[in-house]
Amino acid sequence: MSTPPRISTRISAISESATLAVDAKAKAMKAAGRPVIGFGAGEPDFPTPGYIVEAAVAAAREPRFHKYTPAGGLPELKQAIAAKTLRDSGYRVEPSRVLVTNGGKQAVYQAFATLLDPGDEVLVVAPYWTTYPEAIKLAGGVQVDVVTDETTGYLAGVEQLEAARTERTKVLLFVSPSNPTGAVHSREQTEEIGRWAAEHGLWVVTDEIYEHLVYGGAEFTSIATAVPELGDRVVILNGVAKTYAMTGWRVGWLIGPGDVVKAATNLQSHATSNVANVSQMAALAAVSGDLSAVGRMREAFDRRRQTMVRMLNEIPGVLCPEPKGAFYAYPSVKELIGKELRGRRPASSAELAELILEEAEVAVVPGEAFGTPGYFRLSYALGDDDLVEGVSRLAKLLADAR
After folding, report:
1. Which band of pLDDT confidence, cut at 50, 70 and 90, is reported for residue 134?
2. CA-CA distance, 360 to 281, in Å (whole number)?
3. Is the pLDDT at 16 greater than 80, yes or no?
4. What is the arithmetic mean of pLDDT over 141-169?
5. φ/ψ bin of 383: left (φ > 0), alpha (ψ from -120 to 50), beta (otherwise)
6. What is the secondary structure of 265-281 as a DSSP string?
7. What average pLDDT does the chain have?
8. Helix (H) or strand (E) holding 378
9. Cα-Cα-Cα-Cα dihedral of 369, 373, 374, 380, to 10°?
């Protein structure tokens, strides 16, 4: 008689977050005394601004925040998120159409869980963030990759999207600025894609968590605002993690039509109930405050971005397009695959990344994690000195490739 599997098929199919795995390995090596520099995690190196921390301290002293609160979020925070959305992207939404979640990842999961039935297809531009495939898979959806590369700046156009669309396509996932590539669609490109989605009756799930991190002449454009004809078939995902250096506070949100938000709130009421009240009050201070602290962080990211791209492009065999947003560079290392390096011939970018961690004590995330082998993702959300030292180590090691 066969023994039933201990872990369900659905859950055993989930992969560990590759970015967190790389970060954990780098931190473990560092704890063991090795001078590892990590480009893995997408986490600002800045502390959370002081006024946000003070709001959390005050909230912790309030007895009413020691109790359960509405599963969908504190009413005052939902109101503030609605006001912030109008301020930052011009999209007008009622607080009742906001769901406060335990970080952006829960918003991603609940959006797909609410929209998808088994077999529904989701168009996903690759390279893509590692959590999207797992959330789609858990919802029973089918991911259809629309693969881009450095020759187009990692941007997909309507022609590529249309070629991937079938009668089972229900959702377009639209991400600009992008993790992992830093690609940013222009307003014209965003409008064209949004009109195409509206014409074919598709839902659009748009992840806007990097909205404030754009550089040079790039401009963030919310597809929900730019294409009003999408109507009630657009879901916006966002959070405080990246903009306000609040990755550990775990506050995100989902904005959508009333029926979607109600259904997702019902799901959350059984999964986690309310987000921690202290974190919600910290998020309230963040989204209600001005953006001066954000501006200072963006200036630092921009400086680091330019330094990293310049240094990477000076390494033979490495080609790095200029990212326009977020805080990642996504260079191609395809020319280095299969070359001899320290007595080994890495056959993939994953093997090359492992060699680099061992030999140069530098942690990068290989492109396999993002659906496009032959690339690395490097975060420039770390100190200037560490950034220069880390890329210098990379350059010194890779110069030996033959």
Report:
1. very high
2. 42
3. no
4. 97
5. beta
6. HHHHHHHT-SPPHHHHH
7. 95
8. strand 376-379
9. -20
Cα–Cα distance, 367 to 350 (Å, whole number) = 7
284 touches 77 (CB < 8 A)? yes
**Residues 78-90: what's their mean pLDDT?**
97
DSSP code at position 14: P
Contacts of 351 (CB under 8 A, 6+ apart): 344
**Distance in angstroms (rounded) separating the CA atoms of residues 234 and 245:** 27
- Beta strand 234-239 pairing with 203-207: parallel
Bridge partners (DSSP) of residue 121 are 142, 169
Cα 215 vs. chain centroid, distance in angstroms?
Answer: 17
Model confidence over 215-265: pLDDT tens digits? 999 999 999 999 999 999 999 999 999 999 999 999 999 999 999 999 999
DSSP H stretches of helix in 246-383? 258-271, 277-288, 292-313, 349-360
Lowest mean pLDDT among 186-190, 203-207, 357-361: 357-361
Best CA proximity match to 97, nearest among 259, 258, 232, 260: 258
CB under 8 Å to 304, separation ≥6 — which residues? 327, 380, 381, 382, 384, 387
Q: What is the distance between the alpha carbons of residues 371 and 350, in angstroms, rounded to a whole number?
A: 12
292: pLDDT strictly greater than 70: yes
Q: What are phi and psi of 125, to 5 degrees?
A: -75, 125
No. of H helices and E strands in the chain? 14, 12
Which tokens go with 13?
């199919």
What gap in Å lies between CA 26 and CA 370, rounded to an integer?
19
Structure tokens at 244: 């306000």
- Residue 198 token pair: 């509206």
Q: Are 207 and 72 in contact (CB under 8 A)?
A: no
> 325: closest CA among 196, 137, 179, 128?
179
What is the distance between the terminal CA atoms of the chain, rounded to a whole angstrom? 55
pTM of the predicted protein model = 0.95
pLDDT of residue 1: 66
3-class DSSP assignment, residue 170: strand
Residue found under tokens 């007895």: 63
Quick check: helix, strand or coil at residue 296? helix
**18-31 and 349-360 are packed helices; what angle lies between their axes, rounded to 10 degrees?**
20
Cβ atoms of 324 and 214 within 8 Å: the answer is yes
Give the pair of three-digit tokens for residue 74.
Answer: 């504190």
